[in-house]
Design a protein that fits this description.
By secondary structure, the protein is α/β, with parallel strands linked by helices. 55% of the residues lie in helices and 13% in strands. It is built from eight helices and five strands, in the order βαβααβααβααβα. A five-stranded parallel sheet has the order 2-3-1-4-5, with helices on both faces. It is globular and about 45 Å long.
Length: 200
């Protein structure tokens, strides 16, 4: 288990929150010091931005959306993730910068490389070294959601573009990405994730 900072990624409804919590709990059960975070959010600044991004009825321009996600993420990195890594902890994050690369860079057409540059400036080297990509049909993912947010209400077309962007990134960086079929019952998904990223 060589990773220190794990990103849990996938389309809406893929099971990221459940799997992230299971991995963090498994590590804690082994006596590891673990920080479990979510994006956007995790800090007072980030939670305020989260309300705008996910729970506002206002129209948000694509680059405004990208910049707000980047701002929340930069604060999380400076306030929590960076210090945790420096202290020798493991970090498990329910969404990370890879969400912005997929959603704003790929699905919204801003360009993955351009969105990466914006985020790199704010993250100052605090970047996930492993990515768990939970793959599920976008329509099935949307059906699983307990409540839609401002982005998921845009529907299947956006989520399909997000899924394609994730797939492209996983193909281009296979050593960083671990891909798990998340269409199955959640206990099987969690078991595969734990086997791949935590070990026996």
């Amino acid at each position: 288990m060589t990773w220190r900072y794990l990103a849990i990624e996938g389309v809406d409804g893929a099971g990221k929150t459940t799997v992230a919590a299971a991995i963090a709990a498994a590590l804690e059960g082994r006596g590891e010091a673990v920080l479990l975070v979510r994006e956007p959010g995790g800090t007072p600044t980030g939670e305020a931005i989260r309300r705008i991004l996910l729970h506002s009825d206002d129209s948000v321009a694509a680059w405004t959306e990208a910049m707000l996600f980047a701002a929340s993420r930069a604060q999380l990195a400076a306030e929590l993730v960076g210090p945790a890594l420096e202290a020798g902890m493991r970090v498990v994050s329910d969404r990370t910068v890879y969400s912005s690369l997929a959603y704003q860079g790929g699905a919204r057409g801003l360009g993955i490389d351009r969105v990466r540059e914006v985020n790199e400036a704010g993250l100052q080297g605090v970047w996930p070294d492993r990515v768990l990509l939970l793959v599920v049909d976008p329509a099935s993912g949307l059906e699983r959601e307990d409540a839609a947010d401002r982005i998921s209400v845009e529907g299947i077309a956006l989520q399909a573009r997000v899924a394609a962007a994730y797939d492209d990134m996983a193909r281009q960086d296979p050593e960083r990405f671990e891909v798990v079929d998340a269409s199955r019952p959640i206990d099987l998904v969690v078991a595969d994730a734990l086997a791949a990223l935590v070990g026996p």
